[in-house]
Design goal:
The complex is a heterodimer of chains A (214) and B (572).
Chain A: E1 2-6, H1 10-22, E2 26-31, H2 34-44, E3 48-52, H3 62-73, E4 79-83, H4 88-97, E5 102-106, H5 113-124, E6 129-130, H6 132-140, H7 153-163, H8 168-175, H9 179-193, H10 201-213
Parallel strand pairs in A: 1-2, 1-3, 3-4, 4-5, 5-6
Helix pairs in contact in A: 2-3, 3-4, 4-10, 7-9, 8-9
Chain B: H1 19-44, H2 52-74, H3 80-95, H4 102-110, H5 114-125, H6 134-147, H7 149-157, H8 169-200, H9 203-233, H10 241-264, H11 273-282, H12 289-297, E1 303-308, E2 313-315, E3 321-322, E4 331-338, E5 341-349, H13 356-419, H14 424-444, H15 447-452, H16 454-463, E6 469-474, H17 482-503, E7 508-514, E8 520-526, H18 536-547, E9 551-555, E10 562-568
Parallel strand pairs in B: 6-7
Antiparallel strand pairs in B: 1-2, 1-5, 2-3, 4-5, 7-8, 8-10, 9-10
The chains are: A alpha/beta (214), B alpha+beta (572).
């Protein structure tokens, strides 16, 4: 698996290289600013792009802008954005920019190697992964409709895990319930929120997040 | 902000009936009564020939008194009014020489020439009413000596008349020649002085005051010269009544012209010092002190400078540093002191303002107001410095934490993760520390503000609100300066925090707008219980916004919700 890394912090960049090589990735290029990142990603067409959101040249959201620029040319490009904080706006922009395989995590999540590699595999498999922090913030948002308040606590848990990009099997395992029970909860959530049913992981995350962010 | 364009109404406010005005009117009334009495006495007396001359003298006196009263009312700061009034009394006194009552006649004869000398005094003292230099004082003194003591002496030595004490024609003739010689010297010196004043006056002043001085010279020279020529041509001793009447009428023009100048010419904008005091006592409006002084002094170019502590020297009203004020040929400088300390300075057009005395009096009246304004200017400058230093420091700290400590901790967590096994607990604890640090940094400077600017950061605030908040953003596609962004963010954060803490609103709205290149306008409104007091939070909003030269308006009537409006200039 070939990966391009976008990270301007030198030690962090080395740490990521080490980590991804441990995970069996081949790091084909590293970039220190947004423009460099777009160029190298388009040139190498890697299996995965891993990038920090804040980097040069303006030290605002250059990494995110670079990812969105890549996506405009290649919507199927799998990518994982890392940041020291998360924003719902970025989550929506990232999910909407591609057809599949979109990840957005707090940078500190890399420390839990096992879980991090599992997330990477889901992205490589076309699924999407959203940090629990973003999803929690989305669920905390005040809403004008009360559809969420009509959900049972269990249904809310399921919704939260759906938004994080977990598959039904993964949700069943996490909540220690049967996959059949998960499917029942999921269809209830869909009905309650009026969402279009979709089997594709990415589309499911996008639909849930778009609803929560609206 | 448009501080400079505020209309000033000081000059148009009707004058209050002050003790000075009452005294002036009383004096004028008494003077007119005196004149009427004289007229009655003169008309009653048929023996002394034609009443034409004495009645002319009385009339000229009344003209002087009226002009003096008007000048005194219009310009209480100038002594010109009292001087002209005194000249009027002198004319009445000279008219008394023509009544049948003996003591009055004696006094009238002794003071017969006083009007000429006091007129010369007024011409030399125009426009302030003061004889500024030693030279002008000497000339005026000479004029008085010629017209009163020497005249009395000449009359005393005359063969007859009310004052005659001994008939010494040769001595009398010597006194008269001495009187003439000294008179001519005084007149020539006065002409030279006026001519020099006219030449050295700034152009603006020359144009305005030139005709007056010219008239003064004509009157000064013409009156004694006319008498001299008439005496040479005539074989009668003493001047003819016609000539004396003509001279009196020429001199009567002096107060009329002077008063016209005082009320219509260079000093048309003049407001009384008393009005300045009244305006200051009102405490109305700040920043209009300069305009008020400009009106009082009749000089639209007046500038105010404030002395600020901390070695900063002098600043202008807008807080910008200025050099120490220096007087030169055209600009005068008057230091304003309060309790012995120099608090500011008034810089004025030395040509337009009558003299430093007038500015000094205005400075005394305005000192307290200037001190208040000075403290305000100094406070604003230091508050702006403090706020912007603190804000810049906070942004720098947030950036350092993000790039430094936060990144290092993430890396440390990664290392712990790479070790695995027993380091897992360490890794998880590091994760918690990173969460705390993230919350801390976000509180100092939200990442959304740094990365995406004000609308994104305000959106984050709305997301954290307990009820849905309507957010309207207009024309904020371009990033603003970091100071404006973080100040704007704090305004919204503080307003929302206050609303949810105290007002229990059901509807809250935020609007961020910016007209093309205009200031950032922020509006936060809620339908809560209103009555927001200016607490610590509100105070800090106002401080920050004002530090950037903006302003905040809070409308919060009890029961009617709260509207906070802030306008922050965005520079260029």
């Amino acid at each position: 698996m070939r990966v391009v890394i976008g990270e301007d912090h030198l030690l962090m960049r080395e740490g990521l290289v080490l980590l991804l090589e441990r995970g069996g990735f081949e790091v084909v290029a590293v970039a220190g600013d947004g423009e460099d990142l777009v160029r190298k990603t388009l040139a190498h067409a890697p299996d995965l792009l891993v990038a920090d959101i804040r980097m040069g040249p303006t030290f605002t959201d250059d990494g995110l802008q670079a990812a969105l620029a890549v996506r405009r040319q290649r919507p199927e490009q799998p990518l994982l954005m890392l940041s020291q904080h998360v924003q719902r706006r970025y989550a929506v922009e990232l999910l909407e920019s591609g057809e599949r395989a979109t990840g957005y995590l707090l940078k500190q999540r890399v420390a839990d190697l096992e879980r991090f590699f599992a997330d990477l595999r889901r992205i490589l498999g076309g699924g999407s992964v959203l940090d629990a922090e973003v999803v929690a913030a989305l669920l905390r948002r005040p809403r004008r409709d009360d559809a969420l308040s009509r959900l049972t606590p269990r249904q809310r848990e399921v919704l939260e895990l759906m938004a994080q990009g977990r598959s039904n099997a993964a949700i069943a395992e996490q909540l220690t319930i049967t996959e059949k029970a998960v499917i029942r909860h999921v269809s209830h959530v869909y009905a309650e929120l009026g969402l279009a049913v979709s089997d594709a992981d990415h589309r499911r995350v996008l639909a849930v997040v778009a609803y929560l962010a609206s | 902000m448009d501080g400079g364009s505020t209309p000033v109404r000081v000059g148009r406010r009707p004058a209050r009936r002050s003790p000075l005005a009452a005294a002036t009117l009383l004096a004028l009334g008494a003077g007119i009564l005196l004149a009427l009495t004289l007229v009655a006495l003169i008309a009653d007396d048929g023996e002394l020939g034609s009443p034409g001359l004495p009645l002319t003298l009385v009339a000229v006196g009344v003209v002087h008194m009226a002009a003096g009263a008007l000048a005194g009312l219009r310009r209480p700061g100038s002594r010109l009014g009292p001087l002209l009034f005194a000249t009027g009394l002198a004319w009445q006194a000279s008219a008394a020489g023509f009544v049948a009552i003996e003591p009055l006649r004696t006094v009238g004869a002794a003071l017969a020439l006083l009007p000429s000398s006091i007129s010369a005094h007024a011409v030399l003292a125009f426009p302030s009413g003061r004889l500024g230099t030693r030279e002008s004082r000497a000339i005026a003194l000479a004029a008085y000596v010629v017209c009163v003591p020497l005249n009395v002496l000449a009359l005393a030595l005359a063969p007859d008349g009310p004052l005659s004490i001994s008939d010494r024609p040769e001595l009398a003739s010597a006194v008269v020649w001495g009187q003439r010689a000294l008179g001519i010297v005084a007149v020539l010196a006065a002409c030279r002085l006026l001519e020099r004043r006219f030449r050295t006056a700034p152009r603006r002043q020359r144009r305005l005051l030139g005709p007056l001085w010219l008239y003064g010279i004509v009157a000064l020279v013409g009156v004694p010269l006319g008498g001299f020529v008439a005496r040479l041509l005539s074989d009668r001793p003493g001047a003819s009544p016609e000539l004396l009447a003509a001279q009196a009428i020429v001199l009567a023009g002096v107060p009329v012209v002077f008063t016209l100048a005082v009320t219509r010419g260079a000093f048309a904008r003049t407001a009384e010092l008393e009005e300045l005091s009244a305006w200051l006592a009102d405490g109305s409006g700040r920043g209009e002190l300069r305009s008020a002084l400009a009106r009082t002094l009749g000089d639209p170019s007046v500038e105010l400078l404030f002395r600020v502590p901390e070695g900063a020297g002098w600043v202008r009203a807008d807080g910008i540093a200025a050099g120490a004020p220096m007087a030169d040929a055209t600009r005068g400088v008057e230091a304003v002191t309060l309790d012995g300390d120099v608090v500011g300075a008034i810089v004025y057009d030395a040509g337009l303002v009558a003299g430093p005395g007038e500015v000094r009096r205005a400075a005394r009246v305005a000192a307290l107001a200037l001190e208040r304004e000075r403290l305000w200017v100094a406070l604003r400058a230091s508050r702006a410095r403090l706020v912007s230093v603190a804000d810049a420091e906070r942004r720098r700290l947030a950036r350092d934490l993000h790039d430094g400590l936060q990144a290092r901790l993430v890396l440390l967590g990664l290392r712990a993760g790479l070790i695995g096994g027993s380091a897992a607990a360490l890794r998880d604890e590091l994760g918690e520390i990173i969460d705390e640090l993230r919350a801390l940094v976000s509180g100092m400077q939200p990442a959304a503000l740094t990365e995406r600017g004000l609308p994104a950061a305000v959106e984050g605030l709305a997301d954290q609100a307990p009820i849905p908040v309507a957010l309207e953003v207009d024309n904020l596609g371009q990033r603003l300066s970091p100071e404006v962004e973080s100040t704007g963010y704090m305004v919204v954060a503080e307003a929302l925090a206050n609303a949810f803490k105290h007002a229990d609103p059901t509807d809250v709205g935020i609007a961020l707008r910016r007209a093309h290149d205009g200031p950032l306008r922020i509006e936060v409104r809620d339908d809560g219980c209103g009555g927001a007091t200016t607490g610590h939070g509100t105070r800090s909003i106002v401080d920050r916004v004002e530090a950037l030269g903006g302003r905040v308006e809070i409308v919060s009537d009890p029961g009617a919700g709260t509207l906070i409006r802030a306008e922050i200039p965005c520079g260029s």
